[in-house]
Automatic annotation (TrEMBL):
Reaction it catalyzes: peroxynitrite = nitrate
Domain THAP4-like heme-binding: 17-163
Source species of the chain: Capsicum annuum
CDD domains for this protein: lipocalin_heme-bd-THAP4-like
PANTHER family recorded: PEROXYNITRITE ISOMERASE THAP4, THAP4 PROTEIN
Protein known as: UPF0678 fatty acid-binding protein-like protein
Pfam families per record: THAP4_heme-bd
Amino acid sequence: MAEGTVNQSEKMVHPAVKPLTELLGTWKGDGEGFFPTISSFNYSEELQFSHSPNKPVIAYSSKTWNLKSGQPMHSESGYWRPKPDGTIEVVIAQSTGLVEVQKGTYDMNEGVVKLKSELVGNASKVKEITRVFKLENGELSYVVEMATNLTALQSHLKALLKKL
């Protein structure tokens, strides 16, 4: 591409999404899950962030597999709506039927997106979920914390992913 010209795909990214363009694409890696009420487990994950041209939203999807057997485990999808003021709204529907409405902040100078549930729907036990995503040295990591009607907010999932 000639110097001074703008890549067509960059030109079509909505201004609200531009600060998060580094997230766009497919990420793959491994994670681990744990919680007082379940047995610990390891998983492989593929996470995807995509953007429709000129829309102020990022589509999000995640699929996980058992690290040992390769059997599918969990999937979820939703939308991230970043705002110019550094806040973000997220909706996620999980394959278990649970739905999350989250609000938070992003600071891409620090490479961090922090989310906290405003609503956890269709869940008899889960009361709160937080997610923190970090972009560092070309890797994406996250930590998910969860609170239930029996447990306080604590770590549930963590993973480290690389862009494909």
